[in-house]
Design brief:
alpha+beta, D-amino Acid Aminotransferase, Chain A, domain 1, D-amino Acid Aminotransferase, Chain A, domain 2, 7-stranded antiparallel beta sheet, 7 helices, about 25% helix
């Protein structure tokens, strides 16, 4: 299937305070963010033209930059307004929203304290991928070879571009093997997350999910936990070893792109998508469309 490259698409991108034609939004090849990974981003989604949890994402965006030792030169309110403007000017209702910030081209070495911090916001069409009945068939996950790093070795609580390198490698490998995605372990061999989504399991009506100490505590993850607890479903955040998966009932992942998506296989382990997954799909769909 042919997909139009993103640099050839029409529409508008907001960049450094200016709304411009999307094809005019460019950066220099010697930008520090390209060479040294000094970049952070957000993944957000608009439903009915309204960005879900817009300010939480802006707050995390600024916090991610702070962790990478730079400051985004726009307030949460300014970022919120810019994101909503881009959605409206592109006349989109259901779309993906991508704020990104990076160090510019003023310095080209590991040290780049005086590089300009650039910020851009783009959107593209992204309707919900499946209806609830299609989702209930479940997707298949591989088990990744790369692991999430020790939090003492990487800025794991930032949504930093460089941390996704091993995710891309792992997802490519999974797709070549016929899987939709891959589940990653942490540096000690415990269940962590998928390449771009958090993971949950159920056992006897209780939800279990890994502790988010070496990977991003996703905004969708927190939303799903709140929705489950509002239903009276117990949620336990704990260490989960991969061999435990043989004893668990349901599995599902969640994220801005995945929303809530049940899983039927993780490597050799099989799951049957059930009522808890269905309930959370429905509750999440209701929450984002309020």
């Amino acid at each position: 299937m042919s997909v139009l490259p993103f640099d050839q698409r029409d529409g508008f991108i907001w960049m450094n305070g200016v709304l411009m034609p999307a094809q005019d939004a460019k950066l220099h090849v010697l930008s520090h963010g390209l060479h040294y990974g000094s970049s952070v981003f957000e993944g957000e989604r608009a439903y009915g033209g309204k960005i879900f949890k817009i300010s939480e994402h802006s707050e995390r965006f600024r916090k991610s930059a702070e962790i990478l030792d730079f400051e985004i030169p726009y307030s949460v309110a300014e970022l919120d307004a810019a994101k909503q403007l881009v959605v409206e000017k592109n006349a989109m209702q259901s779309c993906y929203v991508r704020p990104v910030a990076w160090r510019g081209s003023e310095m080209m070495a590991v040290s780049a304290q005086n590089a300009t911090i650039n910020v851009a916001i783009a959107v593209w069409d992204w309707p919900s991928m499946f209806d609830v009945n299609e989702k209930m068939r479940g997707i298949r996950l591989d088990i990744a070879e790369f692991r999430r790093p020790d939090p003492a070795t990487a800025p794991c609580h930032a949504k930093a571009a460089g941390l996704y390198m091993i995710c891309t490698i792992s997802k490519h490998r999974a797709e070549r093997r016929g899987y939709a995605d891959a589940m990653m372990l942490d540096w000690q061999g415990r269940v962590a997350e998928c390449t771009g989504a958090n993971i949950f399991f159920t056992k006897d009506g209780v939800i279990h999910t890994p502790i988010a100490d070496c990977f991003l505590d996703g905004i969708t993850r927190r939303t799903v936990i709140d929705l489950a607890r509002a239903r009276g479903i117990e949620v336990v955040q704990r260490r989960i070893m991969p061999e435990e998966l043989a004893t668990l009932d349901e599995c599902f992942i969640c994220g801005t792109g995945a929303e809530v998506t049940p899983v039927s296989e993780v490597g050799p382990y099989k799951f049957t998508p059930g009522q808890i997954s269905r309930t959370l799909i429905e509750d999440y769909t209701a929450a984002v469309n309020k």
